[in-house]
């Protein structure tokens, strides 16, 4: 799954780059699964995943689809305001908009960094 129309470049990526993205995601997925399997259930409501410089990464949606987030876990993306504003606009128009709980301010006016809360 990916957010459509988020790649400004019309240039196709080489297969090795796509394989690299896939391997990266599978490694992160395995890390999350092993961590959530080892963490006591009492810690779950305090769990947070923070993605710095998230850009247009769609890991949240892939991990959500795999149903590996424990109850109460928060997924927080932090990136530049313009990047997150654009990402929020794309997601709000997509089939995934119901999965979001975007903070009321969406994009903080006086900051170069914005938090986009994607909660479970």
3D structure, described in words:
This protein is of the alpha+beta class. It is 37% helix and 16% strand. It contains 3 helices and 3 strands. The protein has a 3-stranded mixed beta sheet. The longest helix has 24 residues, at 15-38. The protein is globular.
Largest sheet properties: 3 strands, mixed
Low-confidence stretches: 103-114, 116-120
Number of helices: 3
Mean of all residue-level pLDDT scores:
72
Rounded to an integer in angstroms, the radius of gyration calculated over CA atoms is 15 Å
Helix content: 25-40%
β content, as a range?
15-25%
Q: CA-to-CA gap between the ends?
A: 18 Å
**Annotation, overall tally of beta strands:** 3
Succession of helices and strands: HEHEHE
Shape, per Cα inertia axes: globular
Structural class based on helices, strands and sheet pairing: alpha+beta
**Largest sheet, spatial ordering of strands:** 1-2-3
Notable traits:
alpha+beta, disordered C terminus, globular, 3 helices, 120 residues
Summarize this structure briefly:
This protein is an alpha+beta fold and 120 residues long. It is built from 3 helices and 3 strands, in the order H-E-H-E-H-E.
What's the helix and strand layout?
Blueprint: H1 15-38, E1 48-52, H2 59-66, E2 74-80, H3 81-92, E3 113-119
Parallel strand pairs: 1-2
Antiparallel strand pairs: 2-3
């Amino acid at each position: 799954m990916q957010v459509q129309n988020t790649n400004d470049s019309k240039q196709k990526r080489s297969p090795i780059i796509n394989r690299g993205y896939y391997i990266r995601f599978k490694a992160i997925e395995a890390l999350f699964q092993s961590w959530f399997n080892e963490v006591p259930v009492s810690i779950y409501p305090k769990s947070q995943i923070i993605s710095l410089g998230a850009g247009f990464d769609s890991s949240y949606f892939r991990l959500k689809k795999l149903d590996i987030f424990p109850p109460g876990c928060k997924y927080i993306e932090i990136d530049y305001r313009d990047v997150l504003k654009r990402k929020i606009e794309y997601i709000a128009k997509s089939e995934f908009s119901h999965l979001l709980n975007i903070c009321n301010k969406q994009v903080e006016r006086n900051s170069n960094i914005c938090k986009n809360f994607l909660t479970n």
